[in-house]
Design brief:
Strand content: 35-45%
Number of strands: 12
Strand order of the largest sheet: 2-3-11-4-10-9
Structural class: mainly beta
Order of helices and strands: HEEEEEEEEEEEHE
Radius of gyration: 53 Å
């Protein structure tokens, strides 16, 4: 009985040893083979994609330039259409002497004024006249003129005194437009412009764009 048990145990031990030896031989001892594609099925190629380039920065929008102009066509009020457009300064022709001189356009002045020196008052045929000299600028040869006095203009000066100026009529041409206007006679030799054009020339015939000058040519 004991001998049979011993023999059976030996058989079991031998079987377990063989099973263990076979199991150790079947275990893989190296790294698994890489996955191979099946026939007709290629693996997608590896891609080393570059980083996307940064989007270009948009430049700042340019600021619109301010342009001073006089509207034309339907944008201009009907009352201003077909008017002479003058700048802050223009070239003017003084008649009858036909003197060309620079003129300041001044919408704040009621009456125009002309440079005059050596002013002499006298009578002719019972009327008041004035004899004076004018010039385009300092250093030029003076031009003598004799004209009847239409009235006298009283101007309050800076020291609260009143200055009485003779007023005469002359023809002033700017561009293609000629207007007969009154001008007061005063020494303007220390001013930049020998002629000042006031509202008595501008009213009803011209508009002024102070951002421009010599719009009517020279």
């Amino acid at each position: 009985m004991n001998e049979r048990v011993v023999r059976t145990s030996r058989y079991w031990l031998c079987g377990l040893s063989v099973f263990a030896l076979l199991a150790c031989q079947e275990m893989p001892t190296s790294q698994p083979e890489p996955l191979r594609p099946r026939a007709g099925h290629a693996l997608p190629p590896s891609c080393d994609c570059p980083e996307p380039a940064p989007a270009p920065a948009c430049p700042a929008p340019a600021k619109p330039k301010a342009v001073a102009c006089v509207p034309n066509g339907p944008l201009m009020p009907a009352s201003l259409r077909n008017k002479l457009v003058l700048g802050e300064a223009e070239m003017a022709y003084l008649e009858p002497a036909d003197i060309k001189m620079r003129a300041r356009i001044d919408t704040g002045a009621t009456t125009s004024s002309l440079h005059a020196e050596n002013i002499e008052r006298f009578e002719r045929d019972g009327e008041r006249w004035v004899r004076f000299q004018t010039r385009r600028k300092e250093g030029d040869e003076p031009v003598q003129m004799e004209l009847p006095v239409t009235r006298r203009l009283k101007i309050k000066t800076t020291n609260e005194s009143q200055d009485s100026r003779p007023v005469v009529e002359v023809n002033v041409r700017i561009g293609k437009h000629t207007e007969r206007i009154e001008v007061s006679l005063v020494d303007r030799l220390h001013y930049e412009f020998p002629l000042l054009i006031g509202r008595n020339f501008l009213k009803g015939i011209a508009v002024v764009d102070v951002s421009r000058a010599y719009t009517q040519g020279d």
